Amino acid sequence: MSDNETKERPAAADPAAPYGSANNPSEFDVLNKLEKDEPYFIIRGGDPLSDALVELHAYIGAGQSGAAHDTLERILALTSQHPPRPVGSPKYRETFKISVSMERYRETHGRSH
Q1: Measured on CA atoms in the order 41, 43, 47, 49, is the torsion positive or negative?
Q2: Which residues 6+ apart lie within 8 Å of 55 measured at CB?
Q3: Along the 113 residues of the chain, how does pLDDT read in single tens digits?
Q4: In whole angstroms, what is the distance from residue 32 CA to residue 59 CA?
Q5: What is the DSSP letter of 56?
Q6: By the number of CB atoms within 10 A of the CB, which of 2, 20, 25, 34 ranks highest?
Q7: Cα 42 to the chain's mean position, in Å?
């Protein structure tokens, strides 16, 4: 998107719905902009690590390594006693497959932003 183009936030079906939800998408929501072959991964609000993982992503993207480190420590503390899912879980293995797909996509298509 060029500097001359305005960024329009997707229309909210329900402005009272939580920001970033299907009924109140964020300004940078990409679900309707994905290429047909572009892999994606969704972290749902009910995931026990959702807020911390999104926060970690934001801190890393902003170059705030200290805050990112603190958030990663919090994630590790949350998972040290009770991992969200066992290593043998099909969801666990699928997550790694998606990660590999994302890496390969980026190698052939470049970054999406």
Answers
A1: positive
A2: 71
A3: 433 344 556 678 888 999 999 899 999 998 888 999 999 999 999 998 999 999 999 999 999 999 999 999 999 998 887 777 777 889 888 999 999 999 999 999 988 76
A4: 25
A5: H
A6: 25
A7: 6
